[in-house]
Amino acid sequence: MNSVIKELKVFIAEDGKEFLSENACKSYEEGVLAVKKNIRYYKVSYEPDLTEKGCFMLHKLVAVYSLRWYHSEIVENWCVNIKGMKILGEGVQGFGFMPHFHIASISEDQYFNSDCEKVFLSPKAIDGFPENYDYITKWGFK
């Protein structure tokens, strides 16, 4: 039996993924990672219980791909103009008013590892995400 110690050069992408070839690593960073850097994740809580404490009863997880930033504003616009959510509405038991939805940042892991309904706001389809809602085209942006 022979025992041999070998050295292996490994190329590590920005996110820690390892590759045996420099070209594969660069390709991954320029493709997959370039897209991932422009995606933000949010939890939208809505439908407050107006009979007791006002806690939000429903939640959706929203991923937003944008090259022009404004990720949370895209989510807010989607909530108000597409889903018909009110920014402010009647308060608990008719007293005053209160927010009727809330947007909170979450991690990529929270988005993919949750049972909540998932939405993907993006001008293009991306593998691994739900069917995209093309906000650029549908909202008349250029």
Describe this structure in words.
This protein has helices at 22-36, 71-82, 108-112, 135-138, and strands at residues 11-12, 18-19, 39-48, 56-65, 88-90, 97-99, 101-106, 117-121, 132-133. It is built from four helices and nine strands, in the order ββαββαβββαββα. It folds into two domains: 1-37; 40-138. A hairpin with a 6-residue loop joins strand 5 (88-90) and strand 6 (97-99). The strands form three sheets. The chain has a five-stranded mixed beta sheet with strand order 7-3-4-8-9. The chain starts with 10 loop residues before the first strand and ends with a helix. With 142 residues, it is an alpha/beta fold.
Task: Spell out the key features of this protein.
single chain; 142 residues; alpha/beta; 2 domains; five-stranded mixed sheet; two-stranded antiparallel ribbon; 4 helices; 9 strands; elongated
What is the average of the pLDDT values?
92
Trace the largest sheet across and list its strands. 7-3-4-8-9
Structural class: alpha/beta
Give a short account of the largest sheet: 5 strands, mixed
**What is the CA-atom radius of gyration, in angstroms?**
21 Å
The poorly predicted ranges are: none
Shape estimate: elongated
Helix content: 25-40%
Q: What is the first-to-last residue Cα distance?
A: 67 Å
Number of domains: 2
Order of helices and strands: EEHEEHEEEHEEH
According to DSSP, the number of beta strands is 9
Q: Note the total helix count.
A: 4
Taken as a percent bin, the fraction of beta residues is 25-35%
